Amino acid sequence: MIEFQLDRTLITGLPHQIGSLKSLKKLAIRDCRNLSALPESIGNMSALHMLILNKAVIIELPESIGTLENLSVLRLNHCNKLSKLPASFGKLKNLYHLFMEDTAITELPKTFGMLSNLRTLKMAKKPYGQVP
User: Where in the numbering of this chain does the Disease resistance R13L4/SHOC-2-like LRR domain appear (predicted)?
Assistant: First the structure.
């Protein structure tokens, strides 16, 4: 399998076995408003190039995300409970595009400066009271 897409489902988490999908290149989880956590095993998905987690209620990303050496695009738009990025985030050497619109992140990890290939960083917060 190369691409796995979950849109508008009621899932609350992904099974630990998701990490065994080592040839997966794109994992797209959009508008799963009950998804509250990702398993540490996600770091085993060595071929993953694109991770999309738009509109999830995750609070933080697992530390293992830093082992995704091929990740080039990460979309975390409208994950408005996401309040921090793990310290391992700076290990994402091939991350080119990072989108974090409407999250609760107010501070980037110290390792953020190690993202030497980052070309696009989009962070924005909607004004209080604005309808999504």
Answer: 41-124
Contact 59, 82 (CB under 8 A): yes
pLDDT at 131 over 60: no
Residue 86's domain is classified under what CATH number? Answer: 3.80.10.10
Instruction: For 62-108, write each residue's pLDDT tens digit.
Output: 999 999 999 999 999 999 999 999 999 999 999 999 999 999 998 99
Nearest CA to 53 out of 72, 31, 25, 69 is that of 31
**Domain assignment of residue 118, yes or no:** yes
- What are the strands of the beta sheet with 26-30, ordered from one edge? 3-7, 26-30, 50-52, 73-75, 97-101, 120-124
CA angle 85, 90, 94 (to 5 degrees): 115
> Is 131 part of a structural domain of the chain?
no
Q: What total of structural domains would you count in the chain?
A: 1
